[in-house]
Write a structure and sequence with these properties.
The protein is an alpha+beta fold and about 130 residues long. Helix content is about 40%, strand content about 25%. It contains 4 helices and 6 strands; from the N terminus they run βαββαβββαα. Strands 2-3-1-6 form a 4-stranded antiparallel sheet, sandwiched between helices. A two-stranded antiparallel ribbon has the order 4-5. The longest helix is centred in the N-terminal third of the chain and has 24 residues. About 20% of the residues are buried.
Amino acid sequence: MTTLKTLPPTLREKKRYIAFKIIYDEEISEGEIVSLIRKSVLSYYGYWGTSKANPWLVYYNYPYGIVRCQRDNVDFVKSSLILVREYKEKPINIICLGVSGTIRKAKIKFLKIKPVRWYILKRLKG
């Protein structure tokens, strides 16, 4: 039985992480945000562009979230998020806080989440 080998890092697509904040009257679930992001990128960028950008919701805790996308298409994903104006017949505003190369840095820098070190967790467990 043969197993598939993973791509080396030099051949993988480069990713970027876009931190965003949602301004809306009610709390929105994670599934609704996924469909909202998908619809906005599809309507702005089309099917081909969406497949190139490959937007993916990585982290969500209302009202903050992080979307992963390809490095070359960061501007298209940001502009499609900014162009969302209405959700369930109520006004909505998505603000892009910034772009980072790692999820950890996006959480620390833009979402102000303190990092948890592995040795602290190890000390607490044992």
